[in-house]
Write a structure and sequence with these properties.
Layout lengths: L1 H13 L10 H6 L11 E5 L3 E7 L14 E3 L15 E7 L6 E4 L3 E10 L15 E10 L16 H8 L3 E7 L11 E3 L3 E9 L6 E11 L10 E4 L15 E2 L8 E7 L10 E12 L11 E4 L4 E4 L8 H5 L14 E2 L13 E2 L1 E12 L14 H38 L1
Parallel strand pairs: 9-20
Antiparallel strand pairs: 1-2, 2-4, 3-6, 5-6, 6-7, 8-10, 10-14, 11-12, 11-15, 13-14, 15-20, 16-17, 18-19
Length: 421
């Protein structure tokens, strides 16, 4: 009886019963959750040198099909493959280094990052849209060790000269870490007010001990470090200038080891940037571990309580130039990588040099607008579902009020009849 009465109230309020049940009736009676689609709307296949992305035209699962012309891949907006109108999917096939894909080198992986963008436009002379804009991050991870090819490696023998040179290759990396710094952060999503934990590392291999420094860092809305707008995080050869603002960004002291440098950045987003993503590119460099830090090689944080700069190691005076904004040769940290000799010259080692600088990018850092978006990490749900949920909540409240009112009136009527008897 209560169910029929609720249906009757829904019919009066909405002119039908479609909105009374967002799920099948048998699911509501058994307390089951909403069924999940049999196949994901976006699938990614990471090949040896290519990236294959397959997108369902029913991208949001609402029955409203997206147009292939509204879908692009990567910062360079690569177009999908030509497909027939009867196809239910849209396909992209691009090289790993195409479409503006970014590359991040971690301790054990090569990570290629990009994103799928759905940017709907009005059809014809209409000025309305029936689907939402959405950006879906995509990653392909490849192990740095082992053979990723099914073909034989040639030559099967390695010349001694090649072995000697490979021993001195330096691998720079920049990673997002969890708050306890023990593991790499699994999800790149943040909310404004959160803190990003970044860890710069250098894999020295058999090289002599080296000390790593973050020379310069800039944040941009695309992987291009020269893009606009931009925000400088580290400048002047190791001054974490982002800590001068209302944030608490700082280097972590003491560092875990000479080859690792950790720092935190209060997350932010660019004004009028609807994509809500940020890429951070840092210029990393190394010196010999036994070399004392100086104005060109330092890691300095601004301490608000004392209104002064403090180094991770070394004497305090190496940070004095951070206030002046002049810590050596202008633009020195942004020149081409130099070469350094790992030790005293000898007849067998005088040609052995290795680049001691590199630019490394981490991203995208994705910023969610509301705390409730935590459940949607890695996926942009359409706002129409939120509006429908609010409408259903209102219907439920009105239905409950109507039922209570009916029982109240019935109780009052019974009481009156008993009294008259």
């Amino acid at each position: 009886m209560g169910l029929s009465y609720g249906l009757f109230i829904c019919f009066l309020l909405w002119g039908g019963t479609e909105l009374c049940y967002p799920q099948p009736l048998w699911l509501l009676q058994q307390g089951a959750s909403r069924p999940t689609p049999s196949a994901p709307p976006v699938t990614v296949e990471c090949l040896e040198a290519q990236l294959l992305v397959t997108v369902s035209k029913d991208l949001f699962g609402t029955g409203k099909l997206v147009r292939p012309a509204d879908l692009t891949l990567g910062p360079e907006a690569c177009q999908p493959l030509v497909s027939a109108d009867t196809d239910n999917v849209v396909r992209f096939e691009v090289g790993l280094h195409e479409c503006g894909n970014s590359l991040q080198v971690t301790a054990d992986s090569l990570v290629y990052s990009t994103f799928l963008l759905h940017d709907p436009r009005p059809v014809g002379n209409l000025s309305i849209l029936r689907t939402n804009r959405a950006e879906i991050p995509i990653e392909c991870r490849y192990p740095r060790q082992g053979n990723v090819s099914s073909q034989a490696i040639l030559p099967t023998w390695v010349p001694f000269r090649t072995t000697v040179l490979s021993e001195e290759k330096l691998a720079f990396s920049l990673r997002l870490m969890e708050e306890n710094w023990s593991t790499e952060k699994r999800s790149p999503t943040f909310h404004l007010g959160d803190t990003a934990h970044l860890q710069a590392e250098i894999d020295t291999g058999s090289h002599v001990p080296l000390r790593l420094f973050v020379d310069h860092c800039v944040a941009t809305p695309t992987p291009d470090r020269h893009a606009s707008p931009y925000h400088t995080i580290v400048d002047f050869h190791g001054c974490l200038v982002d800590g001068l603002s209302d944030g608490s960004s700082a280097f972590k002291a003491p560092r875990p080891g000479p080859d690792t440098l950790q720092f935190t950045v209060d997350v932010f987003s660019f004004v009028n940037n609807s994509r809500n993503v940020v890429y951070i590119t840092c210029h990393l460099k190394v010196t010999l571990a036994d070399q004392d830090p100086n104005q060109l090689n330092k890691a300095c944080s601004f301490r608000k309580p004392s209104n002064s700069w403090s180094p991770v190691e070394g004497t305090a005076d190496i940070c004095d130039c951070c206030n002046k904004g002049d810590c050596g040769i202008p633009g020195h940290s942004r020149t081409q990588p130099r070469v350094m000799s790992p030790g005293p010259k000898s007849p067998s080692r005088k040609r052995r040099h290795v680049a001691d600088e590199a630019d490394v990018t981490v991203g995208p850092l994705i910023f969610l607008a509301e705390a409730s978006d935590h459940d949607m990490e890695g996926w942009a749900a359409p706002r129409s579902s939120m509006a429908l949920g609010g409408g259903l909540a209102a219907v439920a409240s009105l239905t409950l009020a109507a039922v209570i009112l009916a029982f109240t009136k019935r109780g009052s009527l019974s009481h009156t009849v008993s009294a008259s008897q």
